[in-house]
Amino acid sequence: MNSTSTTQASSKKEPFMTWLTGVAMGAADVVPGVSGGTIAFISGRYERLIDALSSFDLRLWAIWKKEGFSSVWKAIDGTFLTLIFSGVLVSIFSLANAIHYGLEHHAPLLWGYFFGLILASSWMISRRIETHSLKVLVIGLGGLALGIAVGFLSPTETPVTAVTLFFGGMIAICAMILPGISGSFILLMMGLYSGLIAAVKSLDIALLICFAVGAIIGLLSFVRLLSYLLHHYHNETLGLLTGIMLGALVKVWPWKNTLSFRLDRQGNQKPLLQENVMPWTFEQLSGEASQWMLVLLLGLLGMATVLLIEYVGRTDKAPQAS
Question: Cα–Cα distance between 262 and 52 in angstroms, integer?
């Protein structure tokens, strides 16, 4: 196959791969402890996503009046954003029940997969730091401390209303777009996670719209700062994100001992405070099998998933030899 036909095949595959990235981002965002921004980063589409979102400003109105809608669509990278967010929505509405069931009944296995995914992702991000310096190291250690601190936060109880979901969306979306910090985990800490999942399951349109509006406002406000940091402090920002992701491993450790419980809106017991334990300690305390070999295999599968996503993203963008 010559270079022209190979490039054409790659360009035809790119829209599907972009949509698939959105699907994977949505699946990750449903899980407390995993960030959709991680998926965007390892797929090679993160900076494009941030730049596209940060293009939403008052200049678009001037472009609209002068050049029309097609120029506005090009300025915001509209096709790319449509593919990404349609994939996210499809994933959230189709996989929310399955992932929620996995967290309820097979938590160590699911956490094992995501532990491997985050571990490999942090290594992948660190590879993109162009210049290693003491400054980058210190910032990375600060990110590590932040990631660990977030993982040790305790959930609160917040009434699930239109107002709380609006502000919850504003806060959580900032975490969702950052590799390493889970927006779902932030919602869990705020006491809004189960209420939002219930709204997704029951298609409570009013509550979902309030959450979506808050998320859009928060996202468009935050990405401008993030875009600036990536373009002007690239190595320092990647160092911070690497540290945050390594710190996030505290949250997704597969074996946990529950110290106390809380009641959700349906009166069901949910873990409130948990501590990480070794597999054999988990078996002693819970009376359940640790399934450590299967967890290890799923962790390796998570790492392999990252390598596959990164490989596909790299080959899609590599210049083709003649």
Answer: 41
CA dist 212 and 221 (Å) reads: 14
Residue 203, classified by CB atoms within 10 Å of its CB into exposed (0-12), middle (13-18) or buried (19+), is exposed
Helical (H) or strand (E) element with 266:
none
Put simply, whether the predicted model's pTM sits higher than 0.90 gets the answer: no
Taking alpha carbons only, the member of 25, 19, 27, 55 closest to residue 40 is 25
Strand partners, 257: 275
> What residues contact 312, with CB distance under 8 A and at least 6 apart?
17, 43
Tokens 């996670």, residue located: 193
Both structure tokens of 194: 């189960």
- Give the number of residues written for the chain: 322
For residues 295 and 107, give the distance between their C-alpha atoms in angstroms, rounded to a whole number.
10
Report the candidate in 168, 210, 209 with the shortest Cα–Cα distance to residue 185: 168
> What is the Cα gyration radius of the chain?
20
Contacts of 236 (CB under 8 A, 6+ apart): 135, 136, 139, 229
Determine whether 218 is exposed, middle or buried from the number of CB atoms within 10 Å of its CB (0-12, 13-18, 19+).
buried
CA separation for the pair 281, 279 (Å, rounded): 5
d(CA 10, CA 319): 10
Token pair recorded at residue 260: 């106390």
Rounded-to-integer distance, Cα 93 and Cα 103, Å: 16
Residues of the chain with pLDDT under 50: 1, 3-9, 319-322
For residue range 85-133, what is the model confidence (pLDDT) as tens digits?
999 888 877 876 777 777 778 888 888 988 888 888 888 888 888 888 8
> Are residues 220 and 55 in contact, defined by beta-carbon separation less than 8 angstroms?
no
Buried b (16+ CB within 10 A) or exposed e, 108-121: bbbbbbbbbbbbbb
- How many other CB atoms are found less than 10 A from the CB of residue 38? 32
